[in-house]
Design a protein that fits this description.
alpha+beta; Alpha-Beta Plaits; four-stranded antiparallel sheet; 2 helices; 32% strand
């Protein structure tokens, strides 16, 4: 907080849209899976998780990083998928 009582917030985290297409998954299980990424990768942030039918979408980025690329996020998602084979993912896009 500044000396004027104003909260100063500098969010430099660049968020990338992630879309996953699955064979079908329980909504609650998918949300937990996405949020668990932040436990595996402490510097990763996720927001706006949406699970609908066979699709999971969310925003992902690395805390305080404004130069994150979609390839950076894709690499972490691929690693995480290899570690946790909770469900079958048919397609991944990061933009």
């Amino acid at each position: 907080m500044s000396k004027y009582g104003i909260m100063i917030y500098n969010d430099m985290t660049k968020m990338i849209q992630v879309n996953l297409e699955t064979d079908g998954i329980d909504k609650h299980e998918a949300q937990e899976w996405v949020h668990e990424i932040t436990n595996v990768y402490a510097d990763m942030e996720v927001s706006d998780v949406n699970v609908s039918g066979k699709k999971i979408s969310f925003h992902a980025g690395f805390s305080g990083m404004d130069d994150t690329t979609s390839d950076d996020i894709r690499q972490k998602i691929d690693e995480y998928i290899a570690m946790s084979e909770t469900f079958q993912i048919k397609n991944i896009s990061c933009a």
